[in-house]
Design a protein that fits this description.
heterodimer; A: mainly beta; globular; B: mainly beta; 6-stranded mixed β-sheet
């Protein structure tokens, strides 16, 4: 999702619910995508990645879905926990060592 | 092992002063990146080092910004004559090698405030 001004899109969920965070990427030639988690006061942390020849990839409690037709990426977090509260952002890479990062979505998990 | 470290964690300076930000990458990582993150914004690429190759400086916003990497390890980002718009979080990342699908490991960042 995109945001206006300084405010990031925010997703609020209850602990135990599943969360879905969306990302629209810009370049149809991008062939590698990464999701990062950034907690307050910390640097981004790699969560999961996916190559353009895949539609889905699963990790521990997380799943990334890639829809190349509409240039859309999503991150699904199962059984969301308070420790999942953070800003999540996607990055796309087009045959370059420098990814393009999105602005992020703030996930708030209520106990 | 130790991750990427950055210092200082916070820096407050006056407009017009010079600042130096330091990054210690993960030992053995040959690629090092500097990014800038402004409030509510994505990461903005600044500069990239790979081994002994000439750095990619294409993201530096002005000639007030410079960076060096000594001995293929520690890197310093220098901002001369700081301006208020330089206020941001400066993030350093390293990866084992350079490549499209190489995972970048980020440091905690330096929060710079220019008054």
């Amino acid at each position: 999702g995109e945001s206006v001004g300084l405010h990031l899109p925010t997703l609020s969920v209850q602990e135990g619910d599943n969360s879905i965070i969306n990302c629209a990427y810009s370049n149809s030639a991008s062939d590698y995508f990464i999701w990062y988690k950034q907690e307050s006061g910390k640097g981004p942390q790699f969560i999961i990645d996916i190559r353009s020849n895949m539609d889905k990839r699963q990790g521990q409690r997380v799943t990334v879905l890639l829809n190349k037709t509409v240039k859309h990426l999503s991150l699904q977090i199962a059984a969301t926990q308070p420790g999942d509260s953070a800003v999540y952002f996607c990055a796309e890479n087009m045959k370059s060592y420098i990814p393009t990062f999105g602005r992020g979505t703030s996930l708030i998990v209520h106990p | 092992g130790a991750g990427v470290s950055q210092s200082p964690s916070n820096k407050v300076t006056e407009k017009g002063k010079d600042v130096e930000l330091r990054c210690d990458p993960i030992s053995g990582h040959t690629a090092l990146y500097w990014y800038r993150q402004s409030l509510g914004q994505g990461l903005e690429f600044l500069i990239y080092f790979q081994g002994n190759s000439a750095p990619d400086k294409s993201g530096l916003p002005s000639d007030r910004f410079s960076a060096e990497r000594t001995g293929g390890s520690v890197s310093t980002l220098t901002i001369q004559r700081t301006q208020q718009e330089d206020s941001a979080v400066y993030l350093c990342a390293s990866s084992l090698i350079s490549g499209v699908q190489e995972t970048q490991y980020f440091g905690p960042g330096t929060r710079l405030l220019v008054l």
